[in-house]
TrEMBL record:
Record's subunit section: Homotrimer.
Nucleotide-binding keyword on record: no
Domain Porin: residue ranges: 22-339
UniProt keywords, alphabetically: Cell outer membrane, Ion transport, Membrane, Porin, Signal, Transmembrane, Transmembrane beta strand, Transport
The name this protein goes by in its record: Porin
Chief location category: membrane
Superkingdom, taxonomy of origin: Bacteria
CDD domains per UniProt: gram_neg_porins (cd00342)
Lipid metabolism among keywords: no
Locations listed in the record: Cell outer membrane
Signal peptide: 1-34
Entry-linked SUPFAM superfamilies: Porins (SSF56935)
Amino acid sequence: MTSFPLPAWRSPPAAARAAGTLCVLALAAGAADAQVTLGGTLDLATRHVRNGDLGSMNSVVSGANTTSKLVIRGREDLGGGLSAGFFLDGTILADSGAANSPFWDRRATIGLTHQRYGEMRMGRDWVPTQLVWNSMDPFATLGIAGANTFRSVYGSRALGQAFGSNAAGASQNPTLRVANAVEYILPGGLGGFNGALIATAGEGGSAGAGQTKGDGFRLGWAQGAWQLGASQFTVRNAAAEERFTDRVWGVGYDAGFARFSLAQRRWAYGSDTTVNSLFGVSVPMGAGQLKLSVLRADQTGATDALSANDATLLGVGYVYALSKRTALYAHAARLSNQGGASFAIAGGPATSGVATAANYFGGQRSTGFELGMRQDF
């Protein structure tokens, strides 16, 4: 065992203490019978975004090709086809060195898995709709061309009305992940079929504040060149205790020379809907991959004016693998708004959907380019 001199003690911040404790526990478990692994990714890119006549901005961003993250997971074989496991996954904001809040924001679960009967899982996890949607997007819903570009409480009226057009609604709305979840996941070996059920406890709070009361499902089939998926998640404590529904379906086909995908995601709250339609293509090119996508947001509201606020995103990218762990990439995107739509590519000058605001962006165009590197560990 290698020893290292210890520096003078200083009390670390809470997040660092939590991470350090978990690492010690992971190492202790690894010394016993449990299998514990530590891994993750660092991904950084330089980005340039121009938002119409509001000007442009340059930045360094984290996670434009693969989310920068720290992952600790473990599994213990209990015999008879049964195993216990945990999974901790937290975003690293690699451009600043900070961590997200909560620390394990991407996933924090514990569960029991049986080879024949499936898995029961509890904790913080992905909503089933995001899993299907992500699997159909060549850009994995990340970066300037990702299929979650229109997942904005400021641009999508259905999201804004359901969860609030504010910072809390933007970060806590349950179209990505949910807390306080109980899940059942189907086992493998079902002829290509896969699926899951999920229910979340609101614990007396509101969905816009991250305390979602909801339920949903995911069902898919993958065999040979084909992949099919459908999912729904219903939020039962959106604003005014009304229901919000998130539905996704998608089809993927790998023709060998290219993989094609077609998918749609629909958000609905009251009279407001936002329908995201995606067409994607991934083409292997030697050690690299060319990616193309077209994403369309069609909004419907109580008036013709609200129903005219649509947008289209065109994306192209190339990822070149230097090794199994390291890659370089370049992405370019153009977003065009119609009517009073004010969607924008992330990383540009601040925009507003309020017509009287100095930075009103309704009907304008947003363009972007990013160049980056990722490394898995």
